Batch of 4 targets.
Target 1
Amino acid sequence: MSFGSPYTTLPDFEYHKPTSLEEVLGLLKQYGDEAKLMGGGVGLIAFMKERLMSPGHVIDVKEVKELKLLENVQGKGLTIGAAVTLSDLLEREVLKKDYTVLHEAIAKVADPMIRRRATLVGNLCEAIPWVDSPPALIALDATVAIAGPDGRRSVPVGGFIRGPVDIDLGPSEIVTGVDIPQTKSSHGAFEKFTGGSEFSLASVAVMISNGGRNRRARVVYGSVNSSPIRSAEVEEAIKDGISPGSIRKAAEVASEKVECVDDVLATAAYRRHLLKVITTKVLRRMMSQ
Amino acid sequence: MREISVTVNGRARKRMIKDNELLLDFLRERLEVRSVKAACWRGECGLCTVMLDGHLVKSCLVLAVEADGREVKTVEGITNDGELAPIQKAFVTHGAAQCGFCTPAWVLATHELLKANPNPSDADLVEATSGLVCRCGTYNQIREAVAEVSAASKPRREPRESLARA
């Protein structure tokens, strides 16, 4: 047997498969810090193989009915439960039509076999700086729904991600899902550059609402810093519309104002160049739509 | 240890397993289904791909215990009474295997693609198999094999009688 060598095996743990949220909260209360929640398991299993995580208890939430919820309510928006996979989402017509920015962000994540297992909430909770769904969710003004021993609370996605692998979630709490307010007469788009890496070196999510005088833009950059960055300067540059001139201006201020870092994937200087490229690409595409 | 029961290629299999065991190890080591290959162990090469309840997944990223009470299909499950499936015959015809290590995963994935979409475009094929690698580089031959099965599934138009007589 191949059991025994690191990177191919998992540390010892006890597996739990609750079917209700009460049961999950009970297990979290009992095991707290020693437990890890598992959605699709893609990230958790990889982390455990690398021994970056060695939980004594793994709580699989795939069969919790409440967490499988995926519904679009007219006038309210889209609710995505924690056990909903990226494939489940991509199969919904409404995502492509009304939440284009999120559709574009997750349609190119990994490959179809991984998307069949990976969940949106798992992707968010890993809080890896180079993943694509957080900037799109922030552009959509999404909130994270959390349940814990003291009841329920909800926080904006931007505040939920505190830094690399650091989220606003207590040891006995669980993210039950993500809520996205209904998009009204707005359109969005997502662009990224990976350079062949499994992660993005820079990404941008744009939402523009065309509500007459209430026209507003939300522009969020991902993968260039420890957590996603919303840029008021770029939003200002395109507030009067997308034209060749405003695109040039937006690309310039993105490159100058959005703070980039050096890390294992790229240098800050390269990222500043990429910001110009992806800002131009995403806005040109939106202009021609 | 706990006992799980998994239907593998139509046959119920029961084994004792540890909670931290991967589906990949369960299939290869406990059941000796050796067509499921262990290579990268991190979900990148796709050679451990199997069907779990009707969907392709990478078995190095699935716990064995998660498959309890569910159905797994491997490449052995696509033959019909020992007769090769059309895509398997096409792989042979077009020499779509070099060293053969990745072949079971590619055969299974292209077989399932053709079942869901009998006439896939090149883009459909690339997207559906984007999670698989072949380090011998048989991609062109695989594309030819898929194209042959796809063409064979298109309804042939019989010449109309009037034209045939003319």
Note: Residues 79-153 of chain B form a domain with the DNA polymerase; domain 1 fold (CATH 1.10.150.120).
Target 2
Amino acid sequence: MSALPDDGLIAIVKRDCPTCVLTAPVLGELARRAGITVFTQDDPSFPDTVPAPVADLDLGVSHGLKIEVVPTLIRLEGGREIARTYGWDRGEWQRVTGVTELGEGLPESRPGCGAKNVEPGIIERLRIRFNETGLRSRRIEIGSDEDEQEAMFARGWSDGLPLVASTEERVLRMLDGTSRDPQEVIGLVPPALASATVEKIAINAVMAGCKPEYLPVVLAAVEAVLDEGFAMHGVLATTMFVGPVVIVNGPVRREIGMNARGNALGQGNRANAAIGRALQLVIRNIGEGRPQEVDRATLGNPGKLSYCFAEDEEGSCWEPLSVERGLKPGASAVTLFAGFGLQGVVDQKSRDPESLCRSMAESLKAIHNVKLAPSCDALLVICPEHERTFRQAGWSKARVYEELYRLCEIPGEELVAGAKGIAEGGPASLAGKTVNKFRPGGLMIVRAGGGAGMFSGIIGGWSAGGPRGSIPITKEVTR
Amino acid sequence: MSVLLDPTSERSPTTTPRLPRPDRLDGLTIGLLDIAKARGDVFLDRLDERLQERGLAVKRYKKPTNTRPAPLPLQQQIATEVNLVVEGLSD
């Protein structure tokens, strides 16, 4: 900023702006008639109409003056700014300069161009250079001979796959994805019960490969798992297979390009993959929840790298899961379910809803063990060709739930330990009673998947489903 | 040099601590790594004798050359076979 005069006129321009080129003769005129210091953002020889343009190629002067548009014309007096205008406007330029009859032959006005110092990628570097980021996280220097990936692996930050380096520039850009204060605490992440600030979550979202526009979904997902009802500590610490499954509803799905159709639960979509991964990295890095430490899973499941998909609302004849769970239609939301791998329901012959429900119920009853009931909650992902059968028969989602619960009633005799020659099972007192595989409300239905294939999926839950364990949690996604 | 923002709760130091030294050698298997510099073997032979006199299990290893890091298979072999390693730097 030392290059700034205390008094007089200054202008900030760039050659790459047609309006700056248009006003170059006016700047020359001002140099002769009133004196002016012209700072140039790109080409040090521009404008050649003034004797000595000052190069501001590192954009420090422009940043200090908070220039947003070029050309910008400023009058200083005693080191203070007393007038400013931007773009070309004859009347405004005459007001700021006090010089009349400027720019003969020029149109009355022309809008300016975006200044170089506020371009994405540049503004972040300037904020870092001038220590204006407000980011509070510890800075970790990686030596120039060190491999960034190896350095991150060595520090234990990775889930086993390479990470995107959490540079300040990337974290700042990530934080542009939300209007929330970077220091806002979303909650305490178990098992360490360390504070998940928006900034810390953004760092992990960067590492997971998220774009800034995914951040609100990640924040909502973190908020949901930290809800007391979700019991994240238990979900992590259990020897069972489960981890958080993220189901996304509402307009955000399409805005960020999530996959609800073919291979929705598989690989290949950046938003699906990165959002689920970011949530797991938050648990790992902020919460210190790591396998073979507090994460005691016997087998775990591949979804513990990332388990996130969108519901195919457009294709469905039923209300979205988020609406069923009390949110307004049109609101974006995440629902978190503590679930494990996918169990397929292959039924290529049922053409009426009754048969299809029986098929699904038999598969549902097999979760965990046919001898265990009630055992856990479950998420039933109905594929389009199965949903079509219900649609054509005019079945509402409520009717499907009702039918599935009815079909999941099991005679107690079948569940007694030793019955069917299987030692697993419940007490002898179950005999003569009827037991449902699911607690009331323990079953959730969403639609997803590709157009071809009569293959729905069951995502089983934690054995301690419901209030004794983890309750599915829905949170609205807000920017 | 690049600067990364720490994704963790920041409850641990930024540098990886060395493994703690064992309080006692009893019951441990000790690796002696000759990095292939002159007379390193003289030092390690003597150490080997002294350790074996104390009834400790000793395994010997040798790098092909002192000019390069130990080949990965050798590093992995050492890591799986012994509890601690002594290197003879010699010269």
Note: Chain B touches chain A through 13 residues (CB under 8 Å).
Target 3
Amino acid sequence: MDFYLGLVQIIGVHTLLGLSAYCVLLTGQVSLAQAGFFAIGAYVAGMLTVLAQWPLIPALAVSAIVAGAVACAVGFPALRVKGLMLVVATVAFGEAVRLFFFNFTYQIQAGTLHLGPHGAEGFRQIRYFPEHGWSTLDVVLFIWAVVVLVMAGLWWLDRSRVGAVLRAVGEDELAAQSVGINITAVKVSAMTVGGFIAGIGGGIFAHYTTHIEHAQFGVVLATFAIAYPILGGLSNVFGTLLAAVFIQGFLIEGLRFMGDWRNLLFGGLIVLAMNVRPRGLLDAGTTRALKRLFAPGKERSGA
Amino acid sequence: MLDLPVLELEGVSKHFGGVRAVDGVDLAVARGEILALIGPNGSGKSTIVNLICGLFPLTAGRIVLDGIDISDTPMHARVTCGVARTFQNIRLFGQLTVWQNLWVAQNSGEQRRQSFARRWLGGSRGARDEIERTLEFFGLAHKSNELAANLAFGEQRRLEFARALSARPALLLLDEPAAGMNAEEIDQLDNRIRKVRDDGVTVLLIEHHMELVMSIADRIAVLNFGRKIAEGTPAAVQADPMVREAYLGAPEAA
């Protein structure tokens, strides 16, 4: 049972990570910096609850704000470059964050324990959940409440003019400028919101694993972050959720019985999925078909 | 106030390396007129439109809109100043609906001054009505939930025209709006351009379709090799020997 609850936790946190990349990807930017923002969120939230004894919710709020602020600051220089150069720039940023935490030590003595991040050894004893008597199920419910809130917020933004403008920039930057859209402001805003969400996700991740270290926040995690929205499709936030369930639940855990052959099949299935559904698992056509199925005669989009 | 031209180009030049695409052009567009810019292929017409909307910087000269120098104003901000355009090769947001294409283009100064919530989150009734009226005017109301990419070619041209008007421009730049259209569609286009002008929008029209140009232009300016070679009423321009030469070649010595 705990195994499955653990899996549900992972899926929830990775959905948040995927949603952070979704925001940025809507504007047509491929960012591999999301793992960096996630790491910042994890360390900030962990230090606040462990070292400063903050309650969880304010700690998560601050970690989201810090990660969002860093994303905003990184967004200005990074979004001046496009395409592959942006990928390189954001990978460099993500690695810089990881290496910062590789070298970062800030510990305090609490009885016989040393608490706080300790460089390469990582940040152990982030024990907010066990200390406050949260069961695994409580944690699962908390994570998914946050996921639902974030998804509802993004869904609503997506339906508003914000979503239309983000997509307009993602589709044709020149045309967007020609109708009066300030594309730098739009891209930096998307990056900031993405960083904010990654910060929340990272903060939660730090608390349910209780132990974080730099190696968890490398390029692999960044690749997962963009894989979710790309595989899920950009027509709405549910695609990202679906992809997180598919990758974490099916490809990674479901295929564990295959041992080391799993990774091979994992890669193959991703390639297959992208070939069969090039616009993502949940593309515009499927979304329309589902709408018709559940609300016949009431199909509306846009307005 | 009425004497002040909407747009003035003063010695405007654009050189791409050694190529003088536009070379010292002076041009004034009066308020409320339809000025057609014509010339053979490669004479610099589209480059002028791109310079006015701010796609790339000037090599020399200045661009004045309503008495304000906008030569260094970024592209998106010029829309807020009152310049909107269409593209020779249509550039719609194909994966957005017809409605959304107009929605994202509501970027006039007045529209920008709405509160954040109204402008970005809710969408005011005024903004909605405006989109509906524009779609109605362009005969696209029944397509409002269609993806722009799925429209027929003529509808896409109309939608781009409609999108440009969404920012309530003072000056509208139309870059070959009749290209690829049939006679009936050109007729409708003719009517719509006149109607838009009557509503107070100044129009700078680039067009190869001479019938349309001669029918609606109040004045015509002719470009050749990046320079302005003639300017005047349609009749005067048609009679100009320089213009005839540019289009037909120099008359052979008898």
Note: Residues 183-198 of chain B form the longest helix (16 residues).
Target 4
Amino acid sequence: MSEFIRVAKVSDVANTGKIILEVEDRMVVLLHINDQFFCIDDICTHDGGPLGEGELCGFELACPRHGAKFDVRNGAALTMPATEATVVHEVKIEGDNVFVRISED
Amino acid sequence: MSGESETRFSHQWLIPTPALDHAHYFLLPRFNCSMMETTTSLSFTEDGFEAFASVRDEPRWLSDLRVSAWKKYTELSWPARTDEEWIRTDIRQFKLDRYSLSPEPPKPETNATALLREGVELGGDCTSLDSQKTHSFISDKWADKGVVFGSFDEIVRSHGDLIRPYLLRRAVNPSYDKFAALHATFMTGGAILYVPRGVVVDEPFYALSALTDGGADFGHTLVILEDGAEATMLSETASEDAAGGGLHCGAIELIVNPRAHLRYVNLQNWGNNVWHFAHQKALVDRDASLQWTIAAMGAKLAKVNQHVGLIGEGANCQVNGVMFTEDKQHLSYHTLQHHEAPSCRSDFLYKAGLQDKSRTVWRGMIKVDRVAQRTDGYQRNDNLLLSTNARADSIPGLEIEADDVRCTHGSTSGRVDDELIFYARCRGYTRKEAIQMIVTGFFQKVFDRITIESVRDALGLAIARRVREYE
């Protein structure tokens, strides 16, 4: 299993907000929503679109390319044209630091 | 164990979020453990270009070409994710500043495995390592007939006037995009073949471009066949380390003059962490023919533009594509069959086998100009998905302005039929043997089109070795 890697400070991501990071050879979106952190792949499973550039509404992130929505808590595809979940990565907070463990998927 | 560890990410983008009242931008520290710049390395920067240009021993026209290309490079932007050619190919993790050309002489030879050379009697051969020639040879039998063959750098020096009308003037456009301009600035290594009018060469020429781990290859291949000439050239790339990284930013130009016949094979077999960007273009003139076989099995990410222009009446080209991918490889091919003259024939068949989480993208276009009546154009892409997470994007296209043409295109994508595997296993084959047979059968149709037996055998073996077992 891969290790947790410190990727940002809590104060680096606005509450509510998101940033796109490269972690261990992977592009991910780190989201800060209502004092909670989530991390998912920066890829829309429909057509590889830039999910992280999309609009965030509550826990739903919409891909700007064709509008597919994903739940950032579990990566689930909520609307067409996406039918497959995007990958979720584990996040933990220690003090002011945000750690991400990249999923094996 | 507590999770504190060194920050290992190497770059970040920060995006303003519409949900905020104000935009929030910042840049976090950048940590790059692989950056090993020395004062003597030739990086792809203004200083690097000046250092590179200062040590070149080549004709003035070529130096001027490089200066012009560098200027273009600085003016162009990197591709946007919304650009049609890049919409399915994400290069945000590509870091140009991790690579450079080496000013030091290369090792005398490379231990990279060459697949196409085995058991073949060659008319000439040329090897480079990290863009520098290590070996070059042409048989007197062909040199005496006026055939010119050798490394790019030596031939532009010895036969500059012969090469000048062709180099980046008619086929590949050095301003096509930022990668083309970068290549035109720093091109070095690669091979040049020139066959005079009427000369029929019945022994293939061979070129190998090799990379050390983390090296850079900016090889330029230029093949010119004068009227009525015939030749075969085999070209391959390989890394000394199968898992090795590096950068290839290259170009291939094939000029097939009237009534000439060229068979050209290029096998991309880099290590699985190499970034591969290439512009490849052929021009086939009146009553000439080109058989172009492309095979791609290596690289972390490959983005290739492969264009054929049929520029004289009766020109004929056959393109065979063989791709076999694994792990998280991403191979993206953008092909064009451009019918610019009447009564030309083009026949493209690309086949890809995909394993693991790999991905192929094929965007093919047949373009027929208004004057290109009686065009016969065909393109087909077949994809065999050997795992549930592999993905093939296959997008054929036609743009036809003439009204007396035949243009056909097709695309198939599918998984291995479980019944076929069961049938084979009932007859004593293991699951892996069954899949290997099915994969070989899948590629057979394109192998049958390759008229060079040694190439068929080498590709077939290379693919069979890479097949894995899946449940």
Note: Chain A has a mean pLDDT of 94.
